[in-house]
Amino acid sequence: MNNNEYLVRFEKVQKSYDGEILVVKDLNLDIAKGEFLTMLGPSGSGKTTCLMMLAGFETATHGDIYLDGASINNVAPHKRNIGMVFQNYALFPHMTVGENIAFPLEVRKQPKHEIRERVERALDMVQLKGFLSRRPAQLSGGQQQRVALARALVFEPKLVLLDEPLGALDKNLREEMQYELKHIHENLGLTMVFVTHDQSEALTLSDRIAVFDDGIIQQIDAPEVLYEEPKNAFVAYFIGENNRFNGVVKEISSDVCSVEIEGGDIIKAKPINVSKVGDKTTLSLRPERVYINPEPGVTPNVMDAKVLELIYLGDHIRTRVSVSGNDSFVVKIPNSTEHSQLSKGQTVTVGWASEDCRALDV
Known about the structure:
about 25% helix, single chain, alpha+beta, six-stranded mixed sheet, globular, five-stranded mixed β-barrel
């Protein structure tokens, strides 16, 4: 990415609160103009600290943060031209919706007629036309979140930061707001940086996802690449559901390796983070890539299994089976198949392709 394409750049950024433990370790990250980038990770992984340093509420211990080519290390938060949306909305309860949205423009001393026009436009954008004179207490959680979003967009910032903004909403409203956010991003072409620990939210919204753990970006890629091609065991198990086996590499070539798992069986897999015979590895396999009772010769990996649990989930049946001593092996069976007629206690075979099974770090 050349200098004209990125809007945000983190260059060798570190953050420590006590002078000893680094919460963020040597972060190098470019965020493109118009990109929707999600910082995803568990609590304490460093993602929120990165967002707060970008907003100016935290200071980097080491390194530089650039916005539009200029260092913002010493620029006050209110001078960075960044919109911010928090999980708790942070609306002023004594102000109307219109006054809340107008606030950033009044601080910037915009003319009154322009403030009126921009507030109306922002309300249109978040589908709250006619809510101008209501107070936050008269609004639902989803409506309050839309007002907070309108307030972050009204002064046409270069960048919008969103810190777990949908965390307080119920499931249906949360999903509705995800699509709302996605459409606003596409329509306005804004650069958005979103922090969440919710993997499905990240997959739905993002152009790219940066997966954080222990203050380091473990992998940064498009959602489909992260899901289909995790680079290490942490990413594989943090993004989506996975079956895992621990084992030791017995044979290896460029595109396939044979791994002896703890139960003594041999599994053929794609070598990702292994290099030689004797390497310990964790095998990662998505539940939807497993076949029940596959035709002979169709898959290189075939093992006996006993059905332990069947959970009906509408579009698929989540089937837990015992395989080679592993009682938490899951198969997702589409509801349209004849295999949806399985019963608990039944003995079956399970099979999968070697390229769908990834040999990762321990």
